[in-house]
Amino acid sequence: MTEQTDRLIIAITEPPSAPPFHPAPAPAPGTEYPFSIGDIAYATARLLGRDWCADAGYWGITGSLWGPYTASFTLLVDIEGDLCMTWDRSEADEWPDTPQLPPGFHEFSGGIYLPEACVADGLDHLAEQHAAAVRAITGR
Predict the structure, then answer these.
(1) Strands across the sheet with 111-114, in order?
(2) Does residue 92 come out as left (phi exceeding 0), alpha (psi in the -120 to 50 range) or beta?
(3) pLDDT digits (tens, 9 = 90+) for 60-88
(4) CA distance linking residue 14 with residue 12, whole number of Å
(5) Contacts (Cβ under 8 Å, ≥6 apart) of 63
(6) In the list 49, 51, 105, 119, which could disulfide-bond 101, CB 3.0-4.6 Å?
(7) Cα-trace Rg, the chain
(8) Closest alpha carbon to 83 in 52, 53, 44, 26
């Protein structure tokens, strides 16, 4: 074989080399998402009053709320990116069967969600919305 034929065979049988991949630089920690779901739970508990407590789940990706009831609440982000709140209902709590939810909340089989919520809404606003939702759900 000739040198030209050798180069042709290599060119046909070997895939072309791709340019090196250079991902975009990651934002500095704490700048892309300045608060966690756990932070929303803590801020919501503060708004609900002295009888309420909160805790953050692992890595702050969930938040739990509990107060003067048997049931507790969990804040989380679902697979579609919606901010959700679920709870385990107890008959002993005597909550209303059909609460009047604050504007923006939608119901789903496991609880409620805020489809338009985003980090730009701010921690205080999201906590206020969730405190209002807890008050509506509990009837207090």
Answers:
(1) 53-56, 62-66, 72-77, 83-87, 111-114, 106-108
(2) alpha
(3) 999 999 999 999 999 999 999 999 999 98
(4) 6
(5) 36, 37, 38, 39, 40, 41, 42, 44, 54, 55, 56, 57, 74, 75, 76
(6) 105
(7) 25
(8) 44
